[in-house]
Design a protein that fits this description.
The protein is an alpha+beta fold. It contains 2 helices and 4 strands, in the order E-H-E-E-H-E.
Length: 84
Amino acid sequence: MIKERTLLITVDLPQGATFQQALDQLGLSAGEVDEEYGLVALDPDRGKYVLLVAESAAARQGWSEAEGVSGPFADPKIEPFWLP
């Protein structure tokens, strides 16, 4: 589990990509990605996936959309405003 602030990124990967393939393509280690969150298929038919990465890793990598990476995006905690 990552102890620092995390950010969401979207990444283009081949259909059926694995968590390890995503790490390899992005040049990340397992410690820089929230493994519990995992690799989430956003649009698997188009090869769009989401990862939750450490803020320091996102800043260091400097990905571009040309590399098939978008973001980083904030990942705010979602809670109800009130109880019914």
